[in-house]
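Reminder to self: tokens first, then the designed residues, so the page reads top to bottom the way the pipeline ran.
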């Protein structure tokens, strides 16, 4: 595929556009929010190693650790998307709006508005919490507190989140791949060099055995191979189309297949689950309340409570997002309208029930796969004190987004080749 990229100018422009916006985003990660003592802040985050805040830092690509204008990352937008999708599933008004012409655009607009609200609330609470925090010793993180700092920080962080949301939408619309997923992908990949350096330091300091490091790297590649296998796994349901006689010609007929992926939800469930955990974590960690701090300690990555909540959230969002992607009743109705049927199954309601049963079974194993990949390697990594980059969640997102982006690039190439063949065919028909 790589050798054919140069032959598709439109795809090249999309790839360059995507890379350019990701570079803009990564530059913004290092633009600091005013009024912060960078040294005291670095000391505070050094004390937070191994906590949920440390993992949230990975998903923001270091923006939270630098407390840059992008400190909130893309998580407020993801949280807003979760809320709107849940409301759409339970509120008939939103469900009907989604089906109307232009309804999806209105829901997208509501998601943007909610993103602004969540970003403002989260930014304000973090600003208030920072005023009571300090780095090593008694060095305050905030240079000059008060409402001027709080409002400035709230506006800065909200503006940063809105800009990230805009970048993600532009990448999705004019680039290659899903913009939001690619931003998270870029954040995780950006932490790779520092993770390697940290591992080398651990080995030199004698805190990690070389053999264990080699075994964990082997585990990482094994997990990658497992992810690639499951992400491409699908069940092909045979669809039979009857032959039709049009004049003196026999049209149609034959057997086609309806592919259903084992993991139809992709990397969305772990991203949503992580968002649910990180949203309160970024607020809790910036407070000195003993009850809130106890909750934060209970939810440390690798702990029983964290893994339990993460597994439950991942399984829930796997079923939820798959239900949004596939509607067995609509698929059955479309097959019936086009004369298609599953051999041995009556068209209509029986086909819908059959498809729903298959989809439920596939989704169950897809949810188990996602939860297992995200949690099991992380438990081992937590025990051996390895950088979070090698965790199952980060690997799943990196590999899943890479596969999805490559497939979209290939679709653009196939579309281009198809258009070229159609033009050639029209050209030949003139002679």
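Designed residues (431 positions):
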């Amino acid at each position: 595929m790589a050798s054919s990229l140069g032959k598709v100018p439109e795809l090249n422009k999309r790839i360059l556009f995507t890379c350019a916006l990701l570079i803009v985003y990564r530059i913004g990660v290092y633009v600091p929010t005013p009024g912060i003592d960078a040294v005291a802040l670095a000391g505070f985050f050094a004390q937070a190693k191994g906590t949920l805040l440390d993992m949230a830092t990975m998903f923001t690509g270091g923006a939270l650790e630098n407390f840059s204008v992008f400190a909130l990352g893309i998580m407020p937008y993801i949280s807003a998307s979760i809320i709107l999708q849940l409301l759409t599933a339970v509120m008939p008004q939103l469900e009907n709006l989604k089906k109307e012409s232009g309804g999806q655009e209105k829901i997208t607009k509501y998601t943007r508005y909610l993103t602004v609200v969540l970003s403002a609330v989260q930014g304000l609470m973090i600003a208030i919490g920072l005023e009571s925090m300090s780095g090593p010793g008694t060095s305050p993180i905030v240079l000059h507190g008060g409402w001027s700092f709080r409002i400035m920080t709230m506006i800065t962080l909200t503006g940063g989140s809105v800009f990230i949301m805009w970048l993600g939408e532009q990448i999705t619309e004019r680039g290659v791949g899903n913009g939001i997923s690619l931003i998270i992908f870029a954040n995780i990949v950006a932490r790779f060099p520092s993770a390697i350096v940290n591992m080398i330091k651990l080995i030199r300091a004698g805190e990690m055995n070389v053999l264990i490091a080699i075994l964990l790297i082997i585990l990482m590649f094994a997990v990658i191979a497992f992810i690639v296998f499951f992400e491409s796994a699908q069940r092909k349901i045979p669809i039979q189309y009857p032959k039709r006689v049009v004049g003196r010609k026999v049209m149609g007929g034959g057997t086609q297949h309806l592919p259903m992926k084992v993991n139809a939800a992709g990397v969305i469930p772990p991203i949503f689950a992580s968002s649910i955990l990180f949203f309160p974590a970024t607020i809790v960690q910036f407070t000195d309340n003993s009850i809130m701090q106890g909750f934060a300690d209970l939810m440390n990555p690798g702990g029983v409570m964290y893994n339990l909540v993460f597994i439950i959230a991942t399984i829930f969002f796997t079923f939820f997002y798959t239900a949004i992607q596939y509607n067995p009743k609509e698929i059955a109705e479309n097959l019936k309208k086009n004369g298609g049927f599953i051999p041995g199954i009556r068209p209509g309601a029986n086909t819908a029930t059959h498809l729903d049963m298959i989809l439920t079974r596939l989704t169950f194993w897809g949810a188990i796969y996602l939860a297992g990949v995200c949690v099991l390697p992380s438990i081992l990594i937590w025990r051996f004190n390895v950088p979070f980059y090698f965790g199952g969640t980060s690997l799943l997102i990196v590999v899943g987004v890479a596969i999805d982006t490559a497939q979209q690039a290939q679709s653009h190439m196939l579309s281009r080749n198809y258009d070229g063949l159609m033009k050639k065919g029209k050209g030949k028909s003139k002679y």
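The chain has a mean pLDDT of 80.
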